[in-house]
Amino acid sequence: MAGNFSFDQLKKAVSNGEIDTVLACIVDMQGRLSGKRFLAQYFVDSAHGETHGCNYLLACDIDMEPVPGYKAASWSKGYGDFVMKPDLSTLRRIPWLEKTALVICDVLDHHTHDDLAHSPRAILKKQVKRLQERGYIGYFASELEFYLFSETYDSARKKHWQGLDSASPYIGDYQIGITSKEEGVMRRLRNEMEAAGIPIENSKGEWGPGQEEINVRYAEALDMADRHVILKNGAKEIADSEGKAISFMAKYNYGLAGNSSHIHNSLWSADGKTPLFFDKKAEWTLSTLGQQWAAGQLKYAKEFTWFLAPYINSYKRFQAGTFAPTKIMWSEDNRTAGFRLCGEGTKGIRMECRIGGADLNPYLAFAALIASGLAGIDEKLELQKPFVGDAYQASRLPEIPKTLRDATETLAKSKMLKQAFGDDVVEHYVHTARWEQFEYDRRITDWELHRGFERY
To answer: Where is the GS beta-grasp domain (predicted)?
Structure first.
């Protein structure tokens, strides 16, 4: 866990007028930053110890609608407070906001001050602790894709999100010339994230008009999840300040590529110096530990797919021939695979999970990958031979759940995740998923109106 700004530096910056606002943020179930803007002097005087928020923030949907039926928070329980405990190691300046710093908060029970078990950060912290108990560090990196539009969010809303002008009129995957036209936002995004303590390796055009990918330097799992959510929030704020809009929807347009969030993951020794997946004498140079870890992720992929694809729209992305996977298998450097082995023959050898979309919550996704990897180690699973060829055309491979409904019911039955996360935590997120399905099932879509208004 690392920001780029110590508490002592913050106090000094506040006293000399360089910082006047501190954002104290939790991460909600949707992976968004929620919280308060503090007068900086008040934060350093007292609020750095703790503050409070309404517990409905971890029991509502993406529309901020309080959802009935949760055990953890409800109208019958009065929607009380939880504690927001600033993790001061995450303090950082936010260059794109004037005189502003940001800190990530843990969510604690109001009475016991224990981590609130169903909060996304607590779920990941629990799995990280399991790694630490075995002498492991989990290094993760998430590659985020998004569409950049020559629209504001207001203009996109007025167009009903149809006929939008993308930042580039045609596909510019890896093309320098076309992506130079997008540098107004992308250059700021790279440089200002770096200044905020989020090391950016590169950005590039992706496989859609105006589609971008940005790659953050790998880090310990919790630190990487913090980087991920700050990056998403900051990207939208930077784009908005430039009169642009960004979408992280998994599939915003039926005819265009979806937005992914590929997740690279590997285990290292507790001191971070020895890669535990690299064995130059092993098959694929992947150690027995690495093979068991990968085998666990493959075995339980259907059970944790919801943590990688949490919305109705998420499942529209899984289409053949779009660089999004449709099958649960692994392969050596094959982009049709659900899991791809990267860095073979080097200390950087790792498994890349390609299932997740850019709409995932990184804390939940990373936690699920760790839990399934550890299950593979505990069960001493044997890794199957890698698939070779076009996975889209392979009919006998197990498939990624095709709908939110399928993924939800598979999650609800997962003994592995209930053991790793706790029954109540899994029940909390199953309820979240079922509410999302319920909300969709009772709505009238544009597609239905187009097909049926006159023709039925």
So the answer is: 17-115
CA distance 360 to 194: 23
pTM of the model: 0.96
Of all helices (H) and strands (E), which one includes residue 221? helix 221-241
Residues 6+ apart with CB under 8 A from 439: 61
d(CA 342, CA 347): 11
- Which of 202, 293, 268, 189 has the alpha carbon at shortest distance from 231? 189
Count of other CB atoms within 10 angstroms of residue 154: 10
Residue 277: closest CA among 123, 201, 191, 383:
383
Position 258 scores a pLDDT of: 95
Average pLDDT score over the chain: 95
Distance separating alpha carbons of residues 7 and 125, to the nearest angstrom: 22
d(CA 27, CA 37): 15
The pLDDT tens digits of the residues spanning 10-30 come to 999 999 999 999 999 999 999
Residue 339 confidence (pLDDT) above 80: yes
Count the Cβ atoms, other than its own, within 10 Å of residue 425: 22
CATH fold, domain 128-422, is: Creatine Kinase; Chain A, domain 2 (3.30.590)
Average pLDDT rounded to a whole number, residues 121-139: 98
**What's the chain's Rg over C-alpha atoms?**
22
pLDDT tens sequence across 53-106: 999 999 999 999 999 999 999 999 999 999 999 999 999 999 999 999 999 999
Residues 6+ apart with CB under 8 A from 66: 56, 59, 60, 75, 79
Gap between the Cα atoms of 238 and 391, Å rounded: 38
Distances (CA, A) of 253 to 129, 177, 325: 40, 24, 17
Instruction: Look up the CATH architecture of domain 7-118.
Output: Roll (3.10)
